[in-house]
């Protein structure tokens, strides 16, 4: 087996990277310090599909990302590797998507119960996926590796949060997102992408949820926020923008956000938290959102605070027909998250 030191010595970061490797880097699952877990799953998406193909598209686009990071000398030497693409999960996703659509169409046709058989099968499969993700992530965390999850839709990281809840007595979640994802269930799916944070809050070790950029949510979700007694802190996109229009700096707002985050923090990054021009094919785009360098400042503020990032996910990147732009942005966000952690 090639050691990490041998891989570094034989690699020139100024040359074109290695084909088929994340960011063209020379590392393997064995010698990398950061493991990226691809989860090509979007069974419960309610609008546009495509996120299941994000891990492959981002892997391909990542070769165009230059490795030099202005604030981190030799950042690439940390060592990053993506696990092999799980084709069986994609096949299962594609088969189950048909069942999910049956249920969604039944609801759309006025059947208030939907297709309960189809919904039950989807719920069982999503629960099984969560167990797979939990076991996969926990394996690498127990090897003292850093782990990032690459979805898929926003239901995919639930198993990761379960794994963290078994390893940490308490931690917080920093969620960057257009949506609150606090529905008890959505369209009959209890493990919906719209329910990820509702499910995460069932874990006592998740002491705080800090949501940033929220701008599309329902009355049910507002009630969850209101009844949380401070466990859920929301920085709505509209409020952020209005504060800036009234003269408050983004730097000051970032410090307020970070002050709400516990010392151990998991980042859940839904790409639709960004301005839709940066993610035009994402499943449920919403007007508003962040620019790329607003996110870089937020993450730098978090890192400089001394608080520890214990994991992250990146989800809802949908390549679209061409795939190039969304995947390009997704690859750069992924590199930013890796280096921040």
Helical amount: 25-40%
Calculate the mean pLDDT score and round it.
Answer: 94
SSE string, helices as H and strands as E:
HEHEHHEHEHEHEHHEHEH
Distance between the termini: 26 Å
Roughly how many Å is the radius of gyration?
19 Å
Helix-strand category:
alpha/beta
The fraction of residues assigned to DSSP E strands is: 5-15%
How many H/I helices? Answer: 11
Q: If strands are numbered along the chain, what order do they take across the biggest sheet? A: 2-1-3-8-7-4-5-6
User: In total, how many beta strands?
Assistant: 8
Overview of this structure, please?
By secondary structure, this protein is an alpha/beta fold. It contains eleven helices and eight strands. It has helices at residues 4-9, 54-61, 87-108, 116-141, 158-167, 196-200, 219-227, 237-245, 250-259, 292-304, 324-340; strands at residues 34-39, 80-82, 146-151, 171-176, 206-214, 232-236, 264-270, 308-315. It has an eight-stranded parallel sheet with strand order 2-1-3-8-7-4-5-6, sandwiched between helices. Strand 7 (264-270), helix 10 and strand 8 (308-315) form a beta-alpha-beta unit. The relative contact order is 0.16. The mean pLDDT is 94.
């Amino acid at each position: 087996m090639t050691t990490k030191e041998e891989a570094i010595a034989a690699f020139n970061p100024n040359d074109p990277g290695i084909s088929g490797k994340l960011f063209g880097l020379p590392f393997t699952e064995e010698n990398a310090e950061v493991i990226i877990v691809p989860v090509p799953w979007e069974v419960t998406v309610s609008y546009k599909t495509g996120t299941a193909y994000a891990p492959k598209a981002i892997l391909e686009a990542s070769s165009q990302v230059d490795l030099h990071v202005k604030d981190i000398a030799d950042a690439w030497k940390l060592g990053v590797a993506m696990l092999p693409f799980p084709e069986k999960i994609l096949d299962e996703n594609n088969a189950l998507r048909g069942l999910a659509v049956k249920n969604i169409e039944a609801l759309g046709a006025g059947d208030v119960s939907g297709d309960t058989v189809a919904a039950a099968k989807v719920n069982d499969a999503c629960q099984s996926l969560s167990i797979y993700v939990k076991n996969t992530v926990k394996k690498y965390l127990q090897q003292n590796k850093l782990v990032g999850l690459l979805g898929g839709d926003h239901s995919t990281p639930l198993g990761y949060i379960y794994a963290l809840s078994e390893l940490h007595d308490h931690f917080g979640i920093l969620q960057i997102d257009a949506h609150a994802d606090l529905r008890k269930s959505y369209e009959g799916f209890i493990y919906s992408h719209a329910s990820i944070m509702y499910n995460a809050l069932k874990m006592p070790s998740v002491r705080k949820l800090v949501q940033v950029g929220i701008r599309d949510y329902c009355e049910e979700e507002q009630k969850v926020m209101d009844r949380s007694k401070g466990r859920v802190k929301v920085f709505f996109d509209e409020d952020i923008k209005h504060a800036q229009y009234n003269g408050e700096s983004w730097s000051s707002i970032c410090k307020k956000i970070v002050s709400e985050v516990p010392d151990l923090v998991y980042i859940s990054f839904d790409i639709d938290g960004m301005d839709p021009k940066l993610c035009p094919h994402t499943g449920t785009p919403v007007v508003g959102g962040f620019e790329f360098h607003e996110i870089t400042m937020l993450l730098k503020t978090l890192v400089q605070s001394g608080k520890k990032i214990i994991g992250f996910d990146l989800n809802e990147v949908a390549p679209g027909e061409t795939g190039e732009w969304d995947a390009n942005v997704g690859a750069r966000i992924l590199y930013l998250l890796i280096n921040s952690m």
